[in-house]
Specification:
The protein is of the alpha/beta class. The protein has two domains: 121 residues, FAD/NAD(P)-binding domain (3-Layer(bba) Sandwich), CATH 3.50.50; 112 residues, 3-Layer(bba) Sandwich (FAD/NAD(P)-binding domain), CATH 3.50.50.60. The strands form four sheets. Strands 5-2-1-9 form a four-stranded parallel β-sheet, covered by helices on one side. It has a three-stranded antiparallel β-sheet with strand order 6-7-8, with no helix packed on it. Strands 10-11-12 form a three-stranded parallel β-sheet, covered by helices on one side. Strand 6 and strand 7 form a beta hairpin. The radius of gyration is 22 Å and the shape is elongated.
């Protein structure tokens, strides 16, 4: 699959795959690698279209935590446990759920190899493992560094760490987000995070000193992210989060 594949084209291709799978032999074995939004939805849809299909979902985690909604956890509005969901619903549909890690895929023999030695044959394979962070792509960033400078991408410890940093940010402290310069999905996401994190700032009451914490976004002038962020800012006009700012390099 091309990295530049648009969401609309992806769903068109996925729909074609679902249609094909539903028309093949009822003894066909479908293996889905990854139990997030895409993987779980694909497994459920295939089983609902044709209950006779043998559908197996492989996901190492017994509880899936949703990335959408973490902003409100960071802002102190939601609890992290509210973002967790298990796989009992899929099991009740007759989907086999294996909580293990895939070590390799052999497309020639149509095999999925699982850590520990288990092998699964498949007639159709869906790989929906999501994205991984390339720490080496940013100079100075590493897996250990995110304990001090959390990215907050993975729901869980990173979410709670960022929540604590926002909660205990000193008066006059600054929260900075630097969106990628190029094209990426979810251009409004940095601005949603910034706005939700700013919910932690209490409303100023008469006689109290103003909260001087600030939330800033630095992005390249002319970037898609910057243009969208300005549009969001103009629509909501939340003074305490400010407009996107220029960033060189």
């Amino acid at each position: 699959m091309s990295i530049g594949l648009s969401r609309r084209r992806w769903f068109t291709a996925a729909a074609a795959t679902v249609g094909t799978a539903a028309c093949i032999s009822t003894s066909a074995r479908i293996v889905v690698v990854g139990g997030g939004f895409t993987g779980a939805s694909a497994a459920r849809t295939l089983k609902e279209l044709d209950p006779s299909l043998n559908v197996t979902l492989i996901e190492p985690n017994r509880q899936y935590r949703s990335a959408p909604g973490t902003n409100l956890v960071i802002a102190g509005e939601w609890d992290l446990d509210g973002l967790s969901v298990g796989f009992d619903g899929l099991k009740q549909l007759g989907i086999d759920v294996i909580h293990e890690t895939v070590s390799a895929i052999d497309p020639d023999r149509r095999l999925v190899l699982i850590v520990g030695g288990l092998q699964l044959n498949y007639d159709r394979l869906i790989v929906a493992t999501g994205v991984s962070l390339r720490f080496e792509a940013i100079n100075g960033l590493s897996l250990s560094a995110v304990e001090q400078v959390p990215h907050g991408w993975w729901p869980g410890e990173q979410t709670l760490l960022l929540r604590l940093q926002v909660e205990y940010m000193p008066d006059g402290g600054t929260f900075v987000i630097c969106p990628p310069a190029g094209l990426f999905q979810g251009h409004a996401a940095p601005y949603a995070r910034k706005s939700d994190c700013a919910l932690d700032i209490p409303a100023q009451t008469e006689g109290e000193s103003p909260d001087r914490r600030s939330f800033r976004i630095l992005c390249d002038a002319g970037s898609v992210s910057r243009r969208m962020g300005q549009a969001v800012w103009r629509e909501n006009r939340v003074d305490r989060i400010g407009q996107p700012e220029n960033c060189q390099g």
